[in-house]
Design brief:
Layout (H helix, E strand, L loop, with lengths): L8 H28 L3 E3 L1 H14 L4 H13 L10 H4 L1 H16 L2 H7 L7 H7 L3 H16 L3 H20 L23 E2 L8 H6 L13 E2 H11 L3 E3 L5 E4 L8 H9 L1 H23 L8 H8 L8 H13 L1 H16 L7 H16 L4 H11 L1 E4 L1
Parallel strand pairs: 2-3
Antiparallel strand pairs: 1-4, 5-6
Helix pairs in contact: 1-2, 1-3, 1-9, 2-8, 3-6, 5-9, 8-9, 13-14, 13-16, 13-18, 15-16, 16-17, 17-18
Length: about 400
């Protein structure tokens, strides 16, 4: 009986991991960063290799995946989000993520509105889109020819890898638990700081803060293996990075806000909000501890959640408790109102740059005159912001 290429047991494990990792790389580099977000351009040969490999290993169409993912960003954490665990529940997204994908792929409005700019050549129309089952069937034959009967096991691993890790882990866990580096306007989380197993997509909160960035890592201790692959392709002239997340540098002894400060604050607004929460957390906790049990409505847990989120993400009961806390403490009221004013700065699209700079400078002056040391220090830090090019 033909047994294929003879390998030790661990050799077959390595082969399965390599095959699935190439699929993950194709998803994160080609489908996600290139097709859905246009964060980089790929050489036609690289682009088509990824299209061919995805046809073999997943049967997914570029237009469908791109459209569904773009809709996810446009309708994130709402009833129209194709796969939000905040709306549909973590179990539903984790274990039925592939079914949610297929259901949304049948939505013609989604395909027409969000699927623009995806491949529409002869091979896409006549092979990849029309005969997706043929692709995964061809992969099964390849595995059988190369490895004999155990090739079926390798093929089965390939078939379940994307539904589990992409549809389940990234779309589910990535919006349910983990850490947040940025105060994005959704529930996105970084699953791990080391994006290796699923190509860097573990850094999901970073991605939602800056969707058009080709690099998903942000902190010095985070690692995005997909970015490593992209830089390698770029070195060989096979990829061109179009955009990465902005980096901020601090200008020493900068005493007044200017257009550079405004640009840096607006471009890194999710980081600014996260830093605001971290900077004011200790002062707010101390204030609530000082109030003690004299006012039952003051709840540190609620206030902490608000500092690291938005008020509209709190439950009605928590919003009521937050309102009660603000009534009894000038410090908490100031921290709350100053945060709302800061977020309003980048929502005033009708204001001129000069007006926004003046409003930011006024905000900093009032923060420094508030009598809250942490707020004063945060303001002085904010004044020094400037984008690093």
């Amino acid at each position: 009986m033909y047994s294929g290429i003879p390998l030790p047991w661990w050799g077959y494990v390595v082969v399965a991991l390599i095959f699935t990792h190439v699929t993950i790389a194709a998803v994160t580099i080609y489908l996600h960063r290139h097709s859905a977000h246009r964060a980089l351009d790929l050489h036609p040969a690289v682009s088509h290799f990824f299209r061919f490999w995805l046809w073999l290993t997943t049967g997914m169409e570029t237009k469908q995946w791109t459209a569904i993912h773009r809709k996810h960003h446009a309708r994130c954490e709402t009833e129209d989000d194709p796969h939000s665990p905040q709306v549909r529940g973590i179990r539903k997204v984790m274990w039925q993520g592939a079914e949610l994908y297929k259901m949304e792929a049948r939505n013609k409005e989604t395909m027409e509105r969000f699927g623009q700019g995806t491949p529409d050549d002869w091979i896409e129309r006549n092979l990849y889109s029309s005969h997706s089952v043929l692709g995964i069937g061809t992969m099964m034959v390849i595995d059988l020819v190369l490895f004999g009967f155990i090739g079926l096991t390798i093929w089965a691993v390939q078939m379940i890898w994307m539904p589990v890790f992409a549809a389940g882990v990234i779309n589910g866990v990535g919006h349910y638990c983990g850490y947040r580096s940025f105060q994005a306007e959704d529930a996105s989380r970084n699953i791990l700081p080391w994006g290796i197993l699923i190509g860097g997509e573990e850094l999901h909160n970073n991605h939602h803060a800056y969707p058009a960035s080709a690099r998903l890592s942000s902190k010095w201790w985070e690692f995005d293996i997909g970015w490593l692959y992209i830089r390698t392709l770029a070195w060989f002239g096979l990829a061109t990075v179009k955009k990465v997340a902005p980096k901020v540098r601090l200008v020493a002894a900068k005493a007044q806000c200017d257009e550079d400060t405004l640009q840096a604050v607006v471009m890194s607004r999710y980081d600014v909000l996260a830093r605001y929460g971290r900077s004011l957390k200790r002062a707010c906790k101390a204030e609530i501890a000082q109030l003690g049990g004299r006012v039952a409505s003051v709840d540190w847990g609620v206030f902490k959640r608000w500092l690291h989120s938005d008020e509209d993400r709190l439950s009605p009961a928590d919003r009521e408790r937050l309102a009660g806390a603000l009534k009894v403490s000038k410090t908490l009221y100031t921290v709350h109102s100053m945060r709302l004013e800061l977020t309003a700065l980048w929502q005033r699209s009708s204001s001129t740059k000069e007006q926004l700079v003046s409003q930011l400078e006024d905000w900093c002056q009032r923060a420094e005159a508030s009598g809250i040391a942490a707020l004063r220090d945060f303001s002085r830090h904010l004044r020094r912001y400037q984008l690093a090019y």
